[in-house]
Design brief:
395 residues; alpha/beta; Rossmann fold; 2 domains; 6-stranded parallel sheet; 13 strands
Length: 395
């Protein structure tokens, strides 16, 4: 039996996290013993992890960083606790200087705290970093394994400083897995030297699981009878909520009977709330927060809209397609890995006017919308066969 380790930041409700939970649900546990390492615990998707998976206890630094500053000061009497406090303060002070990209934050975190993060005591047959950034650094430096594989699930462009920093970690991996062809192409722009190491395995989505989940739990509870538009994604710049809000204003001004719902949380939450209030959109753009089971909401939506600036794959679009919900999406890098414009949805320019026009096309042209739904009902659902690529990868 092979001993596997998966490492990811957390199991919050996002694309990579849902992909990992789906992969874990498909594994043959007569062949694999699986540990799961998380940097943040207690997130919504943890309850969906198969019982056969051993979720490792939190790192000592993770537990320490969750303490209030007063509690941390009280506990910092021994040399190890004092080092953790010093690292925590160092990281916090650096982050205050300016707004950093996710890649920069990951580098600063690792530069600040890696010296107080313990090495995993187990030797694994295979260790897998299932996200770029901190999980990749951790598996490279703190895990012993016969083989190491790293997943990249975003369009990964780095400045020169971060490219040089991250290269030293990717050099320690046997294979790097991109979740789409376009993700691979963009990764190669940054790391052309890794051409022979990079493979493509798409984010796995299981239509049977999604269909079953869509039939349990609660969806919308506001009894709204008009057009329900849904967007799922972290409340962050990448997801283009500014584009969505501007499109929402246009629809409102046209007198369309609609309500646009957003599932997700993130750093722009308060900014988006303020914009909703400023633009008088409280009855038209509704933040629902995070739901462990988003599928009843997708099933009950009339239109799914993705306004992303970039995606590694776009798992929420795939989930909407599996539930036969017409999609309007911006033309991000990886979009044509799954979208057929005018067939299973509409692909538009990355601007509010185009998003608005796409939504209006689906609302006003009944024959076109029904044609989209008919196509969705007949197209291939999911890609659980990608599990065979995973098995081939790990031998």
């Amino acid at each position: 039996m092979k001993k596997l380790l998966f490492v990811i930041d957390s199991l919050d409700c996002a694309g990579a996290e849902k992909s990992l939970v789906t992969l874990l649900s498909l594994l043959d546990y007569t062949k694999f013993s699986v540990d799961l390492m998380l940097f943040a615990h207690g997130k919504v998707l943890e309850e969906l992890v198969p019982k056969e998976v051993n979720i490792l206890r939190p790192l000592k630094y993770t537990e320490f960083s969750n303490l209030s500053l007063r509690e941390a000061l009280t506990k910092s009497r021994g040399s190890q606790e004092f080092k953790m406090l010093s690292s925590r303060i160092k990281y916090s002070l650096k982050l205050r200087k300016r707004n950093y990209s996710n890649a920069q934050k990951a580098r600063i975190f690792w530069e600040s705290v890696s010296n107080v993060i313990e090495t995993n005591p187990t030797t694994y047959d295979i260790a897998i970093s299932y996200a770029q950034g901190v999980p990749t650094f951790y598996v490279a430096e703190k895990v012993r394994a016969k083989k190491k594989y790293s997943w990249v699930n975003v369009s990964y462009r780095l400045n020169e400083k971060d490219r040089i920093f991250q290269k030293q970690f990717y050099n320690q991996y046997d294979k790097i897995v991109a979740v789409s062809d376009s993700t691979k192409e963009i990764l190669l722009e940054t790391f052309p030297e890794f051409l022979e190491r990079i493979e493509v395995i798409y984010d796995i989505n299981n239509p049977e699981f999604i269909s079953n989940m869509a039939d349990i739990g609660n969806g919308f509870e506001d009894n709204f009878k008009g057009i329900k538009i849904l967007t799922i994604g972290r409340l962050a710049f990448q997801k283009g909520y500014d584009i969505a809000l501007e499109a929402c204003i246009r629809l409102k001004n046209m007198g369309i009977d609609f309500r646009w719902y957003a599932l997700g949380k993130g750093p722009l939450k308060e900014e988006i709330r303020a914009k909703i209030k400023e633009y008088n959109l409280s009855e038209h753009f509704v933040l629902l927060g995070v739901k462990a089971n988003p599928y009843p909401f997708i099933k009950e939506a009339n239109i799914y809209v993705q306004t992303s600036r970039f995606e590694g794959f776009g798992l929420a679009i795939a989930e909407a397609r599996m539930l036969n919900i017409p999609v309007v999406t911006t033309r991000f890098d990886a979009v044509f890995n799954q979208m057929v414009d005018g067939k299973n949805g509409i692909v538009v320019d990355m601007e509010a006017e185009a998003v608005c026009e796409g939504i209006l096309k689906l609302i006003n042209d009944v024959d076109f919308r029904n044609g989209i739904i008919k196509y969705l009902q007949s197209e291939k659902k999911g890609n659980v066969d990608e599990i065979e690529k995973f098995y081939h990868l790990i031998g």
